[in-house]
Amino acid sequence: MNKSPIDSKTAGQRNEKLVLNLLKQHKQLSQAQLCKLAGLGSSTASYIVGRLRNKGFILETPGQSKNRGAKPVILSLNPHGRFIIGIEINPNNILIGLFDFNCRLVEDIKIFLGTDNVPEKIVELLEINLLGLIGKHKIDQQKLLGIGVTLSGSVSPDGLVELSSPLGWKNVPLKTMLSSQFNCMIEVHPTRVRLLAEFNITPELSTKNILYLNVANGVGATVFMEGRLIAGSTGRCGELGHIIVDPNGPLCGCGHKGCLEAFISGPALTKKIKTEISEGRQTILANLIKDEDNPEVVINKWGNALKKNDAFALEIRNYVGNFLSKIASAAINCYDPDTLVVAGYVTIPCFEYLANAIKTRFESDLYDDSSRSIEIIPACAGKNALITGVAASVLENSIKNR
User: Fold this and answer.
1) 8 vs 6: CA distance, rounded Å
2) Residue 149 and residue 161: Cα distance in Å, rounded?
3) Are 97 and 176 members of one domain?
4) Helix, strand, coil percentages in the chain from 3-state DSSP, rounded to 5
5) Is the residue at 1 inside a domain?
6) Tens-place pLDDT, residues 366-383
7) How far, in Å, CA of 204 to CA of 377, rounded?
8) Are the C-beta atoms of residues 62 and 113 closer than 8 Å to each other?
9) Is residue 180 assigned to a domain?
10) E strands along 233-368, which residues?
11) Are residues 179 and 251 in the same domain?
C-alpha cells in the first residue's frame, strides 16, 4: 500500500527508527528494497532518507545495474554518523571501547586498577579516559550516541548496582553518577549483554535456545530462549555462581558461604593455587606465578602448566570440571537449551576437557537425556565480548527509542 507523506512528528520518528533498524539488519539496501521491506511508499521513503542523511545517520552511494537508465542508490548506516562507548568494569581493570555506528571497534584501552576500586574513583577514571578517547578521535560530544557499562552483579533497570560480589559494591547508583558527567544516553547492564557480541559473529545463534556459562571473575549464566534474553522478575536470572554447593565452604562476596563462585571463579582459583603452593605443593606453577596476584595472569599460567601435564595443574582442572559439570547439568534441566556456550577466562585453558566433563554427566544427571540434542561450543567473541555486547545494546536501544 502506498503510504502518505509524513504528517506528524511521531510518525516521522517511527519511520526513522524503522529505516535505521532495517539498515542495521541488512547493512545495505536500495531505496526500492527499503520501500518493500518497510512497507513505505516511495515519497515517504525519500522524505525519511533525506532527513536521516541530513542528520548524518546514513550514506548514499551509487549502485550498479545491468539495465539502462539511472543507477540505483545504495543506502547504509554512516559509520561516522554516531559513536558509542562500551565499558567493562572488573575488580582489577576497566576496559573501554570506542565503537562506530556500525558497532565496529575503533579503539580500546585498558586501565589497570590497584586495590582501590571504590565507585567514586572508577567514575573519575572513566570521565578522564572517555574525554581523552573522544578527544583523540576528534569526536564532537553531540555525536556520542550513548555509553554502555557492564559489570558482574545485579543491576536494576534504572542503573543501580544493587550487588556486585566481585567488586564488593552494594547499592551504587552508577548510572546517576555517570549522568552527572555525560549528557547522553547511559545504560548499565549485568554481563548477560556479552551474548549480543556472539550474535554479531555468528548470527545463526540468535535462532537457538542458549545457555551461556561464564566462569571468570564471577560465575554466571546468560539465558536466551525463544528469541529473547531472559532477565527474570528482578534481573537476576542465571545467577548460577550463587548456588550453594557446600554450606561449610569459603565465604563468597555476596555474603553467603559455599557459593560456586567461591570455588571456581578466577579469584577463588588464584587463592586456592597460591595457598596450596605456600603449603609446599610441588608444581611448576610455583615458578610461573611467584608474586603474581592478578587472576587472569595466574589462570593463563595455569594453562601453560596444563600443556606440560603438570600434576597439580591437572588436579585443578579436574576440580573445576567436577563443580562446573554438576551445575551445568542442573541448569540444563531448568532451562532446556539446545546450545551450551562455555565462556570466561577460566574455561579457555581447558575447554575441551570441560565440555567432555559436562557431556559425561548427561546420561546420569539429565532428565530424559535420550530426547535431547545439545551442542557445546566455546564463546568466540574474545576479550572484547562485554564491551562489544554492551555497545550493541546501546545501539539497539537508541534506535528503538528514537
Assistant:
1) 6
2) 11
3) yes
4) 45, 20, 35
5) no
6) 999 899 999 999 999 988
7) 14
8) no
9) yes
10) 339-343
11) no
> Are residues 94 and 19 part of one domain?
no
Nearest-angstrom CA–CA distance, 187 and 109: 20
According to the 3-state scheme, what is the secondary structure of 167-200?
A: CCEEEECHHHHHHCCCCCEEEEECHHHHHHHHHH
Side chain identity at residue 293, one-letter code: D
Q: Per-residue pLDDT for 303 more than 90?
A: yes
Secondary structure element (H or E) that encloses residue 36, with its range:
helix 31-38
Residue 354 and residue 325 in contact, taking contact as beta carbons nearer than 8 Å: yes
Q: Residue 178 falls within a domain, yes or no?
A: yes
Let me know whether 58 and 127 are in one domain.
Answer: no
Are 226 and 274 contained in the same domain? yes
Residue where the block lists cell 560456586:
260
Dihedral over alpha carbons 368, 373, 376, 377 (to 10 degrees): -160
pLDDT tens digits along 134-162 = 999 999 989 999 999 999 889 998 999 99
What are the cell numbers at 333? 534441566
CA distance 196 to 190: 13
Q: How many domains does the chain have?
A: 3
How many other CB atoms are found less than 10 A from the CB of residue 21? 16
| Length of the chain as a residue count | 402
Q: Which of 51, 77, 103 is the last residue of a domain?
A: 77
Rounded CA gap, 96 and 88, in Å?
A: 7
pTM of the predicted structure, to 2 decimals: 0.81
Cell numbers linked to 232: 527474570
Asked if the model's pLDDT at residue 7 lies above 50, the reply is: no
Q: Are residues 91 and 73 in the same domain?
A: no
* Residue located via cell numbers 547522553: 184
Query: In the structure, what pLDDT confidence band is assigned to residue 3 with cuts at 50, 70 and 90?
Result: very low
Place of cell 547504509: 76
Query: Mind listing the pLDDT tens digit for each residue in 25-44?
Result: 888 999 889 999 989 888 99
In the block, cell 589497570 appears at 112
User: Which is it for the CA torsion 310, 312, 314, 317, positive or negative?
Assistant: negative
Task: Determine the angle formed by the axes of helices 311-335 and 295-307, rounding to 10 degrees.
Answer: 110
Domain that holds residue 128: 83-196+385-400
Cell digits of residue 67: 539495465
